[in-house]
Amino acid sequence: MKKFFTLVFSALTTLSASALDDGFYRMQCVETGRYVSFRNNYVDTESAKRTTQVEFESLRTIEGFDNVASDPGTIIYIKKFNQGYALRSQGFGTDESNYYVQIDDMGDGSYRIWADYNKDGVTATRYMRDCDSKVGGYSYVTTDPDVSKGLNWRLIPVNSDDQKYIGVTPEVTVGDKGYATFYAGIDYKLGSGMKAYAVDTETDATCTLKDIGSTIPARTPVVIECAGEKAADNKITPLETTSGSAGANYLKGVMFCYPVLNSSGAEKRSNPYWNTVDYDVFTMRVLGEEGGKLVFKTGGEDLDYMPANKAYLAVPLSAAAVLTTDGSTAIQGVKTGTTAEQTKGIFTLNGVRLPDNATLQKGVYIKDGKKIVIP
Q1: Mean pLDDT over residues 187-193, rounded?
Q2: CA pair distance 14, 133, nearest whole angstrom
Q3: Is residue 3 predicted with pLDDT exceeding 50?
Q4: pLDDT at 53 exceeding the cut of 90
Q5: Parallel, antiparallel, or unpaired for β 187-190 and 215-216?
Q6: Between residues 79 and 135, the one the model is more confident about
Q7: Counting beta carbons within 10 angstroms of the beta carbon of residue 97, is it exposed (0 to 12), middle (13 to 18) or buried (19 or more)?
Q8: pLDDT-based confidence at 102, cuts 50/70/90?
């Protein structure tokens, strides 16, 4: 498997006349208005070998700024080299594989992004385009020359201005404070009134949040204490580099969530694009509120996969269903942990026990503490 960042393009040796400054950008298609978001790390290279084009289904294009304001996958660091430009996002970069693209300034505030692809001694120039098709408000990037639109792109510098920022949207409210988990492939600095926490200690019933400061290294799973109710109130500033670490941290981050379903809604786990961290009711807790306290607790019945760019608390089998974050005792009335003996049997991913002789439908289950897949 190859990362989509290789683009299966070969490098060129000249830059376009108007060089683009290094920095963080969003890419927005001029014709469709959709923004590029890096949602996976797979590309179908075999298709590229057959057709000299690439269908970047991993590169989603999404309508509406409100839908990308809190999406780290839309933040792309563009860096100039002698060979061309490297694109970096979600912890990966084209330059890691010695691949680069060319960026042409069209003189009207838009750009065209391209590279040469070599097949059997023949060179074909391919441009990055927004695909014509659209499902549920999003599409994806293609290099298909038959796509009639989506050829021109705005490269929007990321800053604190309206429609240009990246911010954190609260998931949980406790009292007058909002909180969210966050996991990004970039270093960043928190805005005014925000705090970031790691979980540095953990028991079966409690855990402790530790303030790790306002500058957060890339790939650090954290709980963010927000300054306001909207992403615009909780802006963060991407950084090219930072130092330090969160130290001990029981939080685990999830970069991608890319399930693949067929037309009837059944999972297609054999599809090479499949990329998920499946929710495990026995060993994962998610951020929530219980009894007026910020807690980590078991997920809801509709939680099958952990969301992208979020974090969860990793716990042992003996952990309680709800763990407080202030060091106090467990919430009254909440059941205690699950022992290894109690995990015997067949369970749904939400922890519902099924009869031992149940006929299992297609899906994922927990049997005797281990995940099984019924195709």
Answers
A1: 97
A2: 33
A3: no
A4: no
A5: antiparallel
A6: 79
A7: middle
A8: very high
From the list 275, 307, 62, 39, the residue with the least C-alpha distance to 171 is 307
What backbone phi and psi angles, to 5 degrees, belong to 197?
Answer: -125, 140
| Residue indicated by tokens 């391209």 | 114
Is 228 strand, coil or helix?
coil
> Residue 312: pLDDT band by 50, 70, 90 thresholds?
very high
177: which strand partners?
A: 174
CA distances in angstroms from 337 to 154, 205, 312, 352, listed in the order given: 52, 8, 17, 15
Q: What share of the chain is helix, strand, coil (3-state, %, to 5)?
A: 5, 40, 55
pLDDT value of residue 17: 44
> How far is CA 321 from its chain centroid?
26
Q: What is the DSSP string of 301-332?
A: TT--BPPTTEEEEE--TT--SEEESBS-PPPT
DSSP 8-state code for residue 226 = P
Residue carrying the six token digits 């379903």 = 261
Q: Which residues contact 74 (CB under 8 A, 6 or more apart)?
A: 26, 27, 35, 36, 37, 38, 62, 68, 166
User: In this structure, is the dihedral angle defined by the CA atoms of residues 135, 140, 142 and 146, taken in order, positive or negative?
Assistant: positive
Tokens of 311: 């974090």
CA torsion sign for 352, 357, 362, 366 is: positive
Tokens read off for 222: 């954290």
pLDDT attached to residue 330: 46
Q: What is the mean pLDDT of residues 68-75?
A: 98
Distance CA 207, CA 372 (A): 30
Give the tokens for residue 300.
């809801």
Q: Is the pLDDT of residue 297 over 90?
A: yes
Helix (H, G, I), strand (E, B) or coil at 338: coil
- In single-letter form, the type of residue at position 80 comes to K
How far apart CA 209 and CA 168 sit, in angstroms, is 19
> Residue 193: what residue type?
G
Most confident of 117-121, 297-301, 321-325: 321-325
